[in-house]
Design brief:
single chain; 439 residues; Rossmann fold; 5-stranded mixed sheet; 14 strands; globular; AAA_14; ATP binding; P-loop_NTPase; DUF4143
């Protein structure tokens, strides 16, 4: 069974006094239902489970009065002996809660009542055109946490890398000392495997159990197909084809030299006014993340972001690779990256940063100055350059030479080499990106 960080989040929530109902939000098939039910059965005497996607009839329970006693009466009548409600001993799990807006409204009443814990999961919460909006969103009566596919650290756990080994890597980074060669080579190998497998639980489990990359690829492409089916099924009629066109343009967007998202690449002559809502739909569904260009390299990063100038990355690097042509997996595992190498490793680092909870930013000027990512690190704005192998850091060096103009005093270079330092630039192996945790 895959170890997930959401387990600790759920435990911390349960140990919080006067806790509110919890909503676990994330893209389809990232493991929400499995993790929530596993936690529920381990930590509660009674688990009452409703899946509104599989059983739309359950919504009728919430069609009348939303008083807790009425809902309990209706559920015990509907489910019989499988629905046991004991104060302090029962958790109600509302799976795919976006399919029953009234159930989300009811969270307010469960919060006030306080006898039973409630956990909801949602894949398409707030996505335009999906279902009906709740009559009343329970503002202040719910806690929302985001869940992602497995991140790189969770992938390492799945492949036998212990916390002790990760602590050793942290120590190497803190002391800026090279990683022992055997461990360094193993981590490089695992990073390439993560690049092609990504973090979808079904894909990771299949990889761990069988190492069959053809089966992994089939799972990933089935997931991509299910996302496209959602776009056609749930989006508003006028948006269906535009959303799919936006989504399918992502590999082409990232293969360009200038990776800024361009609506004209989606369809010749297209504009933001025609396609911006479609791109937003895909982002709201948790499939992509945007990386915004900064006007200046200063904190606060979000305050200096240009909202109309951005790149788009897939939230899961494995799904991105599955959208490329056959044979790409083999090339990556062999270290032969050809023309896509920049896009592949940028999307990999975007995946790692995004799953850490980092918002994504880059810096580009018309003069040609460009830095792949900028992060808040140890309270400073720090440029991060991503290099597939070697490569110069001309833009970063220019920025560091002019601290009075750019307000930057240190930088990080991620690449396929061991740890070291050259003046103000800390060089880290790509696999250490997940350790850049100090905000």
């Amino acid at each position: 069974m895959l170890k997930r960080k959401i387990e600790q989040t759920l435990l911390e929530w349960k140990n919080t006094a006067n806790r509110k109902p919890l909503i676990v939000k994330g893209c389809r098939q990232c493991g929400k239902t499995f993790s929530v039910l596993d936690f529920a059965h381990k930590n509660y005497k009674n688990v009452v489970y409703l899946n509104f996607f599989e059983n739309p009839d359950y919504a009728s329970v919430f069609a009348g009065s939303l008083e807790v006693d009425n809902i309990v009466m209706m559920l015990t009548a509907l489910l019989g002996s499988t629905a046991v409600f004991e104060a302090g001993e029962t958790v109600l799990v509302l799976d795919e809660i976006q399919d029953c807006p009234e159930a989300r409204t009811a969270l307010k009443f469960f919060r006030i009542d306080g006898r039973y814990d409630v956990i909801g999961t949602g894949s398409l919460l707030g996505v335009k055109g999906y279902g009906k909006e709740p009559k009343s969103i329970p503002v202040g009566s719910e806690t929302v946490v985001d869940m992602y596919p497995l991140d790189f650290e969770e992938f390492l756990w799945a492949n036998g890398i212990t916390d002790g080994i990760i602590d050793m890597l942290k120590k190497n980074m803190d002391t800026e000392s090279p990683v022992p060669e055997a461990l360094h080579n193993r981590m490089r190998q695992l990073l390439l495997q993560y690049t092609v497998v990504g973090g979808m639980p079904d894909a990771v489990q299949t990889f761990v159990d069988t190492k069959r990359m053809d089966e992994v690829l089939q799972i990933q492409r089935d997931i991509i197909r299910s996302y496209e089916d959602d776009m056609v099924k749930y989006a508003e009629r006028k948006d269906k084809s535009k959303i799919k066109e936006c989504f399918q343009s992502i590999p082409k967007q990232l293969s360009k030299e200038n990776k800024k998202f361009q609506y004209s690449v989606v369809k010749k002559g297209s504009t933001a006014s025609r396609y911006a809502g479609s791109l937003q739909w895909i982002e709201d569904a948790g499939i992509i993340s945007r990386c915004y260009n900064l006007s200046i390299t200063e904190l606060p990063l979000d305050g200096n972001a240009k909202k109309d100038c951005f790149k788009v990355y897939m939230c899961d690097c494995g799904l991105f690779i599955s959208m490329l042509e056959d044979g790409t997996q083999y090339d990556i595992l062999q270290g032969n990256l050809y023309g896509y190498k920049g896009a592949i490793f940028e999307n990999l680092i975007a995946d790692i940063f995004n799953k850490m909870g980092r918002k994504l930013y880059y810096f580009h000027k018309d003069s040609g100055l460009e830095v792949d990512f900028l992060i808040r690190y140890h309270g400073e704005c720090v440029p991060v350059e991503v290099k597939a192998h070697t490569g110069n850091t001309k833009s970063t060096k220019t920025i560091l030479r002019h601290p009075e103009k750019y307000h930057v005093h240190q930088a990080i270079k991620l690449g396929d080499y061991n740890l070291g330092r050259n003046g103000q630039i800390l060089t880290l192996p790509l696999y250490m990106a997940f350790l850049l945790k100090s905000f």
